[in-house]
Amino acid sequence: MSEAYIVGAVRTPVGRRKGGLAAIHPADLGAHVLRALVDRTGIDPAAVDDVVFGCVDTIGPQAGDIARTCWLAAGLPEEVPGVTVDRQCGSSQQAVHFAAQAVQSGNADLVVAGGVQNMSMIPIAHAMVAGQALGFATPFSGSKGWRARYGDQEVSQFRGAEMIAAKWDISREEMEEFSFESHQKALNAIDEGRFEREIAPLAGVLTDEGPRRDTTLEKMAGLKTLVEGGRLTAALSSQISDGAAALLIASEDALRTHGLTPRARIHHMSARGADPIMMLSAPIPATARALVKAEMKIDDIDVVEINEAFASVVLAWLRETGAEAERVNPSGGAIALGHPLGATGARLMTSLLHELERTGGRYGLQTMCEGGGQANVTVIERV
């Protein structure tokens, strides 16, 4: 089996809802990172075998196989195909998995993996009407099989996050401290210029718009909970955002043929399911299984990127895995940086790679909760 290597990784800044990227068509968001990836790696775009992009709510301007549309909008060769993946929030992490699997199998040598999402243009409210956003609507509610198995109970990310907070007895105060720290870490990373190498500025936006310099624990404490009697507030959840990211995955043969320099090796890839009602707890069993299959321990991991869909998700994961908090989301997470659904997996992988290079770490692990009670896990090794 061939090894799969990451050769390049680039992303847009993550735009705040109705911010600097809000008016940019999703195809143009994706096209921007694709052109940047080609420019930075120096690859002949005609040599690419496939383009695999993640996107959630593929309606309106995100419909019609957005991966293919992004590639064509970038002015890149028509003979290169594209396919769009939906594993909910893990869509572009799964895109990386599919790309690496194609390379490892010997069926491809160069595959672009990434994702795009413009949540300002396709609001969650629109997705609810379309019945396509798992976690904000229940498109399966008319299924007899579903009702027989799970009844008519509410299925939402908000309920799942509350269930996790209750099960692991995570207080609102603990989550607010975690959220505040996410903003501080993100702002520190921006001020230190950590993200500059991985970002391709767009439309005058130079860096991520989400982190709030004026946030305080006192302000967080004054917010209303999402549900009456609950613990979660808007400050403890990921931000609605716009953005795109892309990576170039290459085989050993492609490295030699095209004179490419590998930056990381895909060490492990897997996905696992858990309770679809609690929905967001799957990273815990998925990480445990991945470490066993990779013959590793959590202490072998130098940097972790776990999506901060809600503060309770990451705090429960930390308790169960025993990971050192200092190694987890060292430059902040989605609570501060934002969560452009279909692009976040590739954004996390891009940031993970650059953080390993910045610190000299060897192994990085990425995981994220996904609609339907699922989670992907990827382990990469810096080379």
UniProtKB/TrEMBL annotation:
Annotated Thiolase N-terminal domain residues: 5-253
Domain named Thiolase C-terminal: residues: 261-382
Short name of any one Pfam family annotated for the protein: Thiolase_N
InterPro entries per the UniProt record, alphabetical: Thiolase (IPR002155), Thiolase-like (IPR016039), Thiolase_C (IPR020617), Thiolase_CS (IPR020613), Thiolase_N (IPR020616)
UniProt keyword list: Acyltransferase, Transferase
Annotated Gene3D superfamilies: 3.40.47.10
Superkingdom of the organism of origin: Bacteria
NCBIfam families noted in UniProt: AcCoA-C-Actrans (TIGR01930), PRK07801.1 (NF005865)
Record family assignment: Belongs to the thiolase-like superfamily. Thiolase family.
PANTHER family recorded: ACETYL-COA C-ACYLTRANSFERASE (PTHR43365:SF1), BLR7806 PROTEIN (PTHR43365)
The protein's name in its UniProt record: Acetyl-CoA C-acetyltransferase
Native species: Sphaerisporangium flaviroseum
